Amino acid sequence: MPASYAYLGPEGTFTEAALRTLPEAATRELIPYVSVQSALDAVRGGEAEAAFVPIENSVEGGITTTLDELVAGAPLMIYREVLLSITFALLVRPGTELADIKTVSAHPAAQPQVRNWLRSNLPDAHWESAASNADAARLVQEGQYDAAFAGEFAAALYGLEALETGIHDAENAQTRFVLVGRPARPAAPSGADKTSVVLWQRDDHPGGLRDLLGEFATRGINLMVLQSRPTGEGIGNYCFCIDAEGHISDRRVAEALMGLKRVCLEVRFLGSYPRADITAAEARTQPRGTSDEEFVAASDWVARCQDGRF
What is the tens place of the pLDDT at every residue in 89-106? Predict the structure, then answer.
């Protein structure tokens, strides 16, 4: 496998900035791709060892393009996640004033994060979506648009100036990025992990989602993300993307996944990996009765009962 990481490009994206925070990125060739799909396909096709893509932001939630790519196609696995605080700069060609701006561009996920600023400062500007924020900067450089919302660090790459900086509608906005590779053995538990899965119900019935969530609840597993995505098989047909606390090697998580495998039409395991928001020392205490030791003790008790040794 090539010692390279694919990422959502071109150069100068927030994705690239987040990727460079990973220590191992310094030892890999970083290759920009024009879309999330093409970056993930590079991994599926053996052109790259892993791909680094955005999956969620704190303003709009899940990045649907990434979720749908992980739900469909050949299976992939998440190995790492990175959180990056996001603020935008308004990048323009030198000499451009605010009054000159008639068109602005950025990735669609950026629009909800700058909507109020745009309404207050450029109410008549026409929005055009781009494949990425850095690609929007490139299009401004080429003269296709007047301004782009992107990271301030992208200005020098594209010969632009930051007319405004520190733009964001929500304080402390963050985007979550994931490092995705081909399926393999998950890393050992860190003590502060999450497990990601996709679930498909066998049939649509009252309480169906409650039944799925009950597999987590009865084992004291907290859910951090629950999102529905259409399956493409008609109105009302959805699968569920879930991030749960814990690692697949934890007895409570393994048993929950076994329960889901029994009752679901399909379960896709997307990985168990360290959380980026907390350390093991900061992880919450597990509810009583959900530690590995307590699961083992309960299993041993059942075995003794079966042998008449209770």
Answer: 999 999 999 999 999 999
Contact 175, 86 (CB under 8 A): yes
218-237 pLDDT, tens digit each: 999 999 999 999 988 878 78
Cα–Cα distance for residue pair 166/175, rounded to 1 Å: 16
Tokens of 274: 């360290």
Q: Is the peptide bond before 32 cis (omega within 30 degrees of 0)?
A: no
- Do 194 and 86 form a contact (C-beta atoms < 8 A)? no
Does residue 5 contact residue 51 with C-beta atoms inside 8 Å?
yes
The model carries a pTM of 0.89
Sign of the CA dihedral running 80, 184, 254, 62: positive
* Torsion sign over Cα 86, 87, 89, 90: positive
Residues forming a β-bridge with 180: 51, 78
